[in-house]
Each structure stands twice: as C-alpha cells, then as structure tokens.
Amino acid sequence: MSEFVDSLGEVFAAFGAVRAAKMFGGYGIYHDDLMFALVADDVLYLKADEQSRSAFEERGLPPFEYEKNGKTMKMSYYLAPESIFDDPEEARAWAVLAFDAALRARAAEARRRRQ
To answer: Residue 105: left if φ>0, alpha if ψ -120 to 50, beta else—which one?
Structure first.
C-alpha cells in the first residue's frame, strides 16, 4: 500500500475507522464495510450523488474519470478538497457527506433488487 493510502486513517480519524482494499489498480476506501471513497494514482475521490454533487461542483472539484474502450467514463466520485488533509473536522464533514451518498446508493440498489 502507498504511504498516501496509509495516511488516510489519520486524515479521517475524526470520522472513524477506515480501511483500504485494492481494486482496479487503485484502492477502495471503506467505513463500516461501505465504500465511500477511492484512491487512484494517490489521488483521493469521495462518493457523490444528486444530493451532494453540488458541494463538489461549487468548489470546482472534478469527477473521477477513466478511459475504457476509447471512451471517457465518469464515476460518482469527485476529487476531495485539499483542505481536508490539514483540517480533521473538515475531513470528517466531507467523509460524512460521501458516506451518506454511499448509504443512499446502497439503499437504492436494495430497492432495485427487491423489484
């Protein structure tokens, strides 16, 4: 694991325990067994949805994108603000925002599966 990924436990200490799991050349960042962030090339992205996306867009934070079969794919993860690395309370607030989006996505998926 990279030093950057290892440091996320400290960054999110005010939020609670997090763990990293290797995935697709990067890492998924989990809290309570729910992925709320991802790391690609030592860059942190936080989960977003319709309710939270504007918080990222207002700060000019772009979505995570990757190339697949010549097409640009966008995911529902946005660049984390740099300020969270120096401010534990801000890191907690952004983690809560991302975790809440992950909870809503999990609930929506559960509803789809029941139908």
So the answer is: alpha
pTM metric for this prediction: 0.93
Query: Predicted confidence band at 113 (pLDDT cuts at 50, 70, 90)?
Result: confident
Token couple for 53: 């996306």
Structure-token pair, residue 76:
């529902």
The CA radius of gyration of the chain, in Å to the nearest whole number, is 14
DSSP the chain: --HHHHHHHHHTTTT---EEEEETTEEEEEETTEEEEEEETTEEEEE--TTTHHHHHTTTPPEEEEEETTEEEEEEEEEPPGGGGT-HHHHHHHHHHHHHHHHHHHHHHHHHHH-
